[in-house]
Specification:
Blueprint lengths: L1 E6 L14 E6 L11 E7 L6 H10 L5 H14 L1 E8 H17 L5 E6 L1
Antiparallel strand pairs: 1-2, 3-4, 3-5
Helix pairs in contact: 1-2
The protein binds L-tyrosinamide.
L-tyrosinamide binds next to strand 3, helix 1 and helix 2.
Length: 118
């Protein structure tokens, strides 16, 4: 139930007192089927072996960052131990994490990426 208060003077669906006073209109919020999904952070973890260039490429290719932003995030992770690569609905975050770890495994780097609810 939403409550909308407005000055009168126009036409109101549910009431217009035409007195110059205030009209209070009540209406039920229209039903919508779309729900905003919960969001999850994809967090890159630092390690001592994955090359910086590899992490920057991951940030560009999987998380669609520009060179400068990818470098900034990689250095943040390198210096602070972890950092957010991107924020997505659950299944997208899950797929990106799996892709990162597959590419890292294939290249024989120990890079890890984890998910955290926002
Ligand atoms: N610490 C790594 C190095 O010195 C670089 C690195 C950055 C690794 C970010 C992982 O998520 C990472 N080569």
């Amino acid at each position: 139930m939403g409550k909308i208060t407005a000055r009168s003077g126009g036409d109101f669906e549910n009431g217009n007192d035409r007195s110059g006073g205030t009209v209070t209109e009540r209406r039920t919020k229209e039903q919508t089927k779309t729900k905003k999904p919960s969001l999850y952070k994809c967090i890159l973890l630092n390690d001592d072996y994955t090359p910086m260039e590899f992490v920057v490429e991951i940030l560009k290719q999987i998380f669609h960052k520009q060179q400068a932003e990818a470098t900034r995030i990689m250095l943040h992770v390198h210096q602070n131990g972890m950092g957010v690569a991107g924020v997505y609905p659950y299944e997208i975050a899950e797929t990106k994490i799996r892709t990162v770890e597959e590419l890292a495994k294939e290249a024989q780097f120990p890079l890890k990426c984890v998910m955290e609810k926002e």
